[in-house]
Write a structure and sequence with these properties.
By secondary structure, the chain is an alpha/beta fold. Helices cover 36% and strands 19% of the residues. The strands form two sheets. The protein has a five-stranded parallel β-sheet with strand order 2-1-3-4-5, sandwiched between helices. Strands 6-7-8-9-10 form a five-stranded mixed β-sheet. About 6% of the residues have low confidence. It comes from Streptomyces mooreae.
Length: 293
Amino acid sequence: MRASLLVAGEADEGLLLGVLRELNIEDVWVLHNDLGDRFMLDPVPDFVVGVLTDDESSPRSKNKTFTNGEVSLRLGLTAGRGVPALAIVPPTSEMRSPDPLIMVAACDVHVRQALADHLWAFTAALDLPPSSSTPPVPIERGLKNADEYLAVLDQLERGSRGFGGQFERLMGRVLMSAGAAVAETKGSLGDRVDLAFVPSGGSTDIILVELKAGHLSEATLSGAEEQLQRFVIERQAKYGIVLYHDTYGRSLPSRHSTPLIVRMSARELIQRLAVEPLPKVLDAAVVEAVGRM
């Protein structure tokens, strides 16, 4: 794949280029000012990444590097040509996407793991069907084969060989069947959470998942929530979900809400997906979690 990289101010693109190479994107044109404008879309890249700085107070360098506004303008021109773009903005930024083809990731370009997660989410979303907001046609269908997944869930036996791996693979298949792009976090995204996913095309929201299965307790699930909360903050993800399966069939809803974390049983997730699309299920779960705070 080929990409163009637009850098505002004195932002350091070195770490970003390394992450792109790990995603097998090695043909990258790096542009710091308007002298390279003719190369931005010629030849047309697969996508464009714009890096906005959090400090425009210092005077422009003698090379007249891009300002945030100039990078944003070029991202708009890119979208007008039908090329998808990613705007990497400071974590404190409130920038919203001005165009369906422009995704916005609030991410510190100096935090490698967060940067890798957001770039993975963007490239993964390019391969997904559009979300319900692009174009504005609502998605009514839920998970087609929910009954089959519930049957597999019921057959999982704690203590059997590979029990944890079976549960992880099952939930990964459920999320992918519901339209998400799922990453195996033991690979490029690290190994401290079980799954990470982007819920739909047109979104760069990263949701981290911690899986718990077996004879569970409130202490186990609360500990998982606290640990996942730290990872969500560290990796600048949208939020996290503790997905659990109690082999005694018990429902163990959260007694109190942990900020940025949703707790849900695997059975409840599959049952909800039988009637509603994944983004709606997640939105409802977040609203319920906030209501308990």
